[in-house]
Amino acid sequence: MKRLNGTETKALLILSIVAPVGLLAAFRLTGILEEPITISESITVEAVSWSTSRPAETREPYMILIDRRGVVNSYTDGKVSFSLNAWAITYFEKWVGAPFEGADGLVMRLINVLNVSEGFIDSFVVRFSQTGDSAFVDLLEDPDMMDLYGVKLVEVHDWLKESYIESYGIDQPKHCRMEVQLYWVFLDAQNSVQQSMTINLEATYFNGTAYRKLIVPILLKVYNSEA
After folding, report:
1. CA gyration radius for the chain?
2. What is d(CA 183, CA 164) in angstroms, rounded to the nearest whole number?
3. SS (H, E, C) the chain
4. Nearest to 126 by CA among 48, 60, 28, 199
């Protein structure tokens, strides 16, 4: 083994410091390692509500159409325009197919549209917060059932009381659109529990000078058959 002299040892030490620093800078430039974002302002829009009632319990499985338009909540200030559309399409009673497996629930479409005229869209999270433990959300992750523009999914966490979709904008976009299908499954067999869920669109964007966060909520309620 060759012994290193003082000059060689010093050069090797400098290289051992410079190389990791160079890699760290490269990771930041390529987006592999993200810089922490400081949110200068957070705005929460007033929630809008949508509700329907469940039919009386039956022994036979069936399905009915619920709503052909859905409910929309939005925000705009002339430079920013965000909207969240929750569309409850079909109600299933004692449906045998997945993910209901004999339970009841709704098939829904969720549409997020985000536009900025200055700056760019950094990321957004859609959160599903339920009351009680008698329901869950199953998000369909089939690419053929999704419509994604300017956005990439990072994580999908479902079948939880607090489920969410996390995504980020591709190449600092000014326009993003995401449409996904989900199932809201009710586990109470007698149609006796009022189900409630809040969907929050939490969008982070850069307006040209600072990062801002916008929260757009929708409250969904499904009343029991005796209400």
Report:
1. 24
2. 13
3. CCCCCHHHHHHHHHHHHHHHHHHHHHHHHHCCCCCCCCEEEEEECCCEEEEEECCCCCCCCEEEECCCCCEEEEEECCCEEEEEEEEEEEEEECCCCCCCCCCEEEEEEEEEEEEECCCEEEEEEEEEEECCCCEEEEECCCHHHCEEECEEEEEEECCCCEEEEEEEECCCCCEEEEEEEEEEEECCCCCCCCEEEEEEEEEEEECCCCEEEEEEEEEEEEECCCC
4. 199
Token pair for 193: 């529990």
Q: Which residue type sits at 220?
A: L
Distance CA 224, CA 226 (A): 6
To which residue do tokens 């390692």 refer? Answer: 33
pLDDT tens digit string along 113-160? 999 999 999 999 999 998 878 899 999 888 777 899 999 988 888 888
201: which 2 tokens? 């669109």
